[in-house]
Amino acid sequence: MTHPTWPIDLRSDTVTRPGEAMRRAMAAAPVGDDVYREDPTINSLQEKVADMLGKEAALFVPSGTMSNQLCLRTLTRMGDEVIVHEDAHVLHYEGGSAAALSALQLRPIAGALGALPVEAVERAIRPAGEHFARTGALEMENTHNRCGGTIWPLEQMEAVAAVARSRGIGVHLDGARIWNAHKATGIPLPAYAAAADSVSVCFSKGLGAPVGSALAGTRAFVEEARNNRKRFGGAMRQAGILAAGALYGLEHNFDRLVQDHENAAVLAGYLREVPGLHIIHPVQTNIVIVEVAGLGMTAEQVVTVLKENGVLCGAAAPTRVRFVTHLDVDAAAVRTAGEIAARLLRARRPGA
Ligand SMILES: Cc1ncc(COP(=O)(O)O)c(C=O)c1O
Known about the structure:
Blueprint: E1 8-9, H1 20-27, H2 40-53, E2 57-61, H3 64-75, E3 81-85, H4 89-92, H5 97-102, E4 105-109, H6 118-124, E5 135-141, H7 154-166, E6 170-175, H8 178-185, H9 189-194, E7 198-202, E8 213-217, H10 219-231, H11 240-252, H12 257-272, E9 278-279, E10 287-291, H13 299-308, E11 311-312, E12 314-317, E13 320-324, H14 331-348
Parallel strand pairs: 1-11, 3-4, 3-5, 5-6, 6-7
Antiparallel strand pairs: 2-8, 7-8, 9-10, 10-13, 12-13
The protein binds pyridoxal-5'-phosphate (PLP).
Pyridoxal-5'-phosphate is lined by residues 14, 63-65, 68, 89, 141, 145, 174, 176, 202, 204, 213.
């Protein structure tokens, strides 16, 4: 199987395709019925993830969305409110599932670079009383997707978690890209995970697996989440074939995440040189979001122009364009994409 390098696809780190070696590992995986807990590959993956995160147990699930939603369901009761960042993935990109599946209301609050300010969290927690929803959980996302792959400072996570816990509120970490935060800062994964009661991680983003996520927490939490996974229709049978892709990603594609970060910095360098373009967040990991209003163009127009010239990116907002570096786009391709984007967009600026 050849990895296509054209067009240069920087829409998301979810677009990676499993290479030959990962496919071989998947094909050769020992499997069993996971509803009977007899799939050895899933069992190994769950043990490995729990171990990496310093949690008692973990559970393999089909997607990051299901993982987040299972955690929220398991932490809360029907009608609860969940404090989230105003740009949280669970708020914008999970199809309204917190409301649809768990009867939860999300309480968005603002905060720089995707992190929730401690005082704002304190203010957002509902007092007791029959008028109010019960604040059932608080959610953190690290790295933060809509805020350009930015990293929550660990101290801020700990401070926010301490406030929530002092009020008996469960804390969930959407760690779809916690691997990237760990690689960029060197902070151990268990330190991040300890700030939350439940953690969700993804294998199908920077790690390059075709499918899969896991949630982790105490043994009791994971048992209950397992029950909820069945209710959500996410209990699978010989899914060790998929877990093998995730294990392969953890073993072979983990350390190279730093290359994605370097490539994002290189790409940002090209884009920063274009008058009228503004990179809205510091580029800390593998995501670059640019404000394009200064070019007099919409995000869709930029996406179209670049697509016609072989560079794929995504509209993150009406005038914001997102680029994500990943396993299937190497340093040379990223430089090519940067050159193409800079040349085309420079020519588009008003008065050029
Ligand atoms: C921060 C974050 N959380 C959760 C998800 C959901 O993952 P999935 O697409 O596997 O449902 C994503 C997907 O991009 C994400 O970026």
